[in-house]
Amino acid sequence: MKNTRICPKCGSNDIAVVDGSAGAYGSGNNIMIGGTIFSAVKVDRYICGSCGFTEEWIGADGLKRLAQSNKWHR
């Protein structure tokens, strides 16, 4: 959905984006990798307005920071 703006489940193009954010006490669209909001990795959400399907995406910088944290495992 991020690249095509089309829902892979229902084919709709009614796609909304909720940009990643970091707020007090870990609120927002993020993954906390430390003790403060400055350490949060922001997660963008793509939502189909027709069927409700969602995707979450993390940018290259966020992936790099996750890989260096102890919150990441395979």
Q: What can you see in these coordinates?
A:
The structure is a single chain. 11% of the residues lie in helices and 26% in strands. The protein has a domain at 15-65. It is elongated, with a radius of gyration of 14 Å. It has one helix at residues 60-67, and strands spanning 15-18, 30-32, 40-42, 44-48, 54-57. The protein has a three-stranded antiparallel β-sheet with strand order 1-4-5, with no helix packed on it. Strands 2-3 form a two-stranded antiparallel sheet. With 74 residues, the chain is α+β, with helices and mostly antiparallel strands. Strand 2 and strand 3 (40-42) form a beta hairpin.
Question: What's the gist of this structure?
Answer:
With 74 residues, the protein is an alpha+beta fold.
Write the layout of secondary structure elements.
Blueprint: E1 15-18, E2 30-32, E3 40-42, E4 44-48, E5 54-57, H1 60-67
Antiparallel strand pairs: 1-4, 2-3, 4-5
Q: Structural class per helix/strand content?
A: alpha+beta
| Relative helix content | 10-25%
Radius of gyration, in angstroms, nearest whole number: 14 Å
Number of strands: 5
How would a textbook summarize the main sheet? 3 strands, antiparallel
How many individual helices?
1
Question: Cα distance, first to last residue?
Answer: 25 Å
Instruction: Provide the spatial order of strands within the biggest beta sheet.
Output: 1-4-5
* Helix and strand element order: EEEEEH
Q: How would you sum up the global shape?
A: elongated
Mean pLDDT: 92
* Proportion of beta-strand residues: 25-35%
